Amino acid sequence: LYPAWASSVGYHKYDNKLGIPDAKSRDRELAFCKAQADSLHSFKISDLSDANKTDYFLIDNQLKYIEWGINEQRAFEWDPSGYNVSGGFADMLANEYDKLDTRLTNFYEKMGAVPAYYEAAKNNIVNPTKEHTELAIEQNLGGVSVFEKDLEEALTKSGLDDAMKGKIRERAKTTIAAIKGFADWLKNLNNAYPRSFRLGKGLYQRKFELELQSGYSADQVYAFAVTHKLELHEKMFEITKKLWPKYLKSKTMPEDKLQAIRIMIDALSVKHTQPGSFQSEIEKQIPELIAFIKKKDLIYIDPSKPLVVRKEPDYMAGVAGASINAPGPYDKNGNTYYNVGSLAGWEKEKAESYLREYNHYILQILNIHEAIPGHYTQLVYANQSPSIIKSILGNNAMIEGWAVYAERMMLENGYDGDKGVNSTEASPEMWLMYYKWNLRSTCNTILDYSVHTKDMSKDAAMHLLMDEAFQQKAEAEGKWRRVSVTQVQLCCYFTGYTEIYNLREEVKKKVGNKFSLKKFHEKFLSFGSAPVKYIKVMMNN
Ligand code: ZN
Ligand code: ZN
Question: pTM for the complete prediction?
């Protein structure tokens, strides 16, 4: 039913298939969900182990999510950007999981279904939103290069005979025509009453439940975020007052709190590494983080599974930053890479603006988040409770929430790169920058909820992001674009973070002075990438 999904998690048996998104296939999906739910429900939950109970709930939720998507959300009618074949084809060329000629043969067979795919898309679309229509046109046209440049490069390296290469090129032309035809069709669509991109409260609340599987409702998390934002502003203003004489002695501090904080952030942001040492700076911090965690006894880090730091591969180039690249669940023996972007060749101004954003302080927080003890550490623990279900249906709120929680936890324990392994207290500068970083996920939640359920205007959104979360205009514009084509995803960071933090405080209270942070972390992570609400039940058992 989901060949593209299978390929993306490393299961390549159906690489030559392309699902046709028509009414018949939706009927098949619904029948599949009904049949699987029936067999799933024949298990008695109380008979299952903790690990299997979580898998049970994850499968049950996934089946409900699919049904809800088809029957209620119906994005296949109003979101044309859901139709785009190029990403899957690009992966077949870029990822070397099989011999190139095998991948190219699958590529060829799969292309055969592209025209039918876009015909089905046109039949589905009813009154699409303007935003998703524009995105669909842009992304589909952007993907054409996969069937021109990328494919041509692969054919040059291929050992297939000329006759087969000719057939592939012919079919690529038909494929490109189908993609461009879809984009043209969208451009000329008579769409006098486009649907609003705002999901609306009812659908939003349900999507929040199905996507995040949080113990809190969307309304609760929104209320937490609003309170948290105000608390962060207070703390940031306290630090700003304290640091003002050190950095801005000659200037009068503005009375407006938010303005004063912004000036202080700008003053601290000039401390940053240089383009040429961006990668080595990140690399250097990894062993320092490990040493600090060991010294403070925060969590066991398995030394037999080192993180491989590498320059990001070419097909990811241009993004900079850093990201974890983990092997899919069907590809266990692969290495886990920490891809670090290079700023080589960037214009001076662009590099400077980027380095101020990822300044001396934020870069440390980024490393905590992405690598240790954030995503990478969580992943190592998740792999110890092997469950293909948890790998494939892993809960994003838990995964992102852990990384965001790890940032705060490290600072609470005194982490500060300038003070070394024996540091007991992070500097005020470090805290101020951390709060700014934390405001981002907090305001993402406020933004997402307000836009989709409270009709927040673009002006109000820009005020929130620029004046209250201290973001640059370009970043805020990008965020507005993102919130107008996605729903709920922007909440996963703050939701998971809040749940994990609150759970830790509850356990701490219950256990009293016998509480061990290390034990809490290790136990929490031992259940894999499950929703926090289930981990909470299992931890209390
Ligand atoms: Zn500079
Ligand atoms: Zn993350």
Answer: 0.93
